[in-house]
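Hi team,

As requested, here is the filled-out complex form for the fe (ii) ion run. I kept the field names the same as last time so the parser does not choke. Let me know if anything looks off before we queue the next batch.

— J.
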Amino acid sequence: MPVTPVTPVTPVTPVTPVTPVTPVTPVTPVTREELTMILRQLFDTESSTYTYLIGDPATRRAALIDPVKEHLERDLRLIGELGLTLTLVLETHVHADHVTAAGELRERTGARTVGSAKGAPCISDPVADGDTLELGALRIEVLGTPGHTDDGLSYRIGDNVFTGDTLLIRGCGRADFQNGDASALYDSLVGTLFVLPDHTVVWPGHDYKGMTSSTIGEEKRHNPRVAGRTRAEFVAIMNGLGLPPPRKLDVAVPANRACGRVEL
Ligand SMILES: [Fe+2]
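And here is what came back:
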């Protein structure tokens, strides 16, 4: 009898391993805080100086404008509390009334220091009118605004402008030292700042009367030194102020040209 051939066993198809399902990352709702530029106004009571902390909500990169040496720890603490990383320190000019924290902040955080090419030789990145800087998704436009000093800069970020001592609320910086020039200051005020949209918010470098911010439109209408004044009238007002020298002039200017090193 013939032997029936054994039917070969069909090999078992290996089971394809199931690809694990990647868990869906829950979408965090976008909050107003994430969409709005971070902006904090900080104050030094001794010199009435405003320092500004600017942050990009998306990348958490931050800049300090005109930091004061005595408030370095306060400013670093706030930067930490807000979860920010300091990448830029911006100077509006070489100050005569306070010593900058720029150099020490650069040493402590690795931030780049930025100021006018005509100002402190120790800065990391000299800039001039028309330059732009990036802070994460924020674009910082450099405006040359000399006159209070010859190295004066303002920084425009969207609808905000940080005017240093060029434009103050209902006033302006003096123009009688550090190569100040009242006629150049008039051009900076009228020709550079007052051509910005009226709704632009003005953040000054100082205030001595308890004011905090203004707008370009408001200053065009109500700034007593420049609203409705001719260049000649403005220069006459500035030349007739008769102000005493700033208290820290002899210490602050050389220290600030060295980015805040007071031992020089
Ligand atoms: Fe100043």
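Two things worth flagging: DSSP finds seven helices and twelve strands in the chain. Residues 161 and 167 are 10 Å apart (CA to CA).

Thanks,
J.
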